Amino acid sequence: MELENLKELLVNKKLADVKKIYEEMNEYDIASLIEELPDELLIQAYRLLPKDKAVDVFVNLDEEVQRELIAKLEKNVA
After folding, report:
1. Cα-Cα end-to-end distance for the chain
2. pLDDT tens-digit readout, 14-40
3. N or C end of the chain: which has fewer CB within 10 A?
4. What's the whole-model pTM score?
5. What dihedral angle (degrees, nearest 10) is formed by the CA atoms of 54, 55, 57, 59?
6. Integer Cα distance of 64 and 61 in angstroms
7. How far apart are CA 38 and CA 75, in angstroms?
């Protein structure tokens, strides 16, 4: 999957399509794609992951992206 395709699906709210694509990808490849997303799509892309896969994707993210994601998730919970 290309980054531009993922961005387009997220922007156009084709969330079911994103979930289907995630099913076919491994955690490392998903993490690589998510790291390249603009900030406004990062949390949306991550939240679409199934919980069991989200953990594995998270550990494969760059530490800076992990911190950014945690901060965004905490901000949305508060």
Report:
1. 33
2. 999 999 999 999 999 999 999 999 988
3. C
4. 0.87
5. 160
6. 8
7. 17
